[in-house]
Amino acid sequence: EVQLVESGGGLVEVGGSLRLSCTASGITSADYAIGWFRQAPGKEREGISCVNNNGRHSWHANSVKGRFTISSDNAKNTVYLQMNSLKPEDTAVYYCLGVGSWGQGTQVTVSS
Prior knowledge:
Strand content: over 45%
Radius of gyration: 13 Å
Number of helices: 0
Structural class: mainly beta
Order of helices and strands: EEEEEEEEEEE
Mean pLDDT: 96
Shape: globular
Distance between the termini: 40 Å
Number of strands: 11
């Protein structure tokens, strides 16, 4: 059974930084991708970034490009999302998705 566990969320001021982690277990495939999504209150869940497990290929949505960076540590089965220059509109629950499984989510709140 594939399980994903997010961590690293919290409360931060505008312009601050956070690093989210998504640690996977139970993945048997040698090649896979992990994506980060977020869902703000009253809005649909949106995909913001993804990376393959060897870290060679990544993608960022325009809304976070230049501020967020995704990376992968294959040895630790962990994907990171470094979030800089945070804005109030980044406030949301952040989820990771991989091999058809979702994590439980971690809350990010950016105060103005």
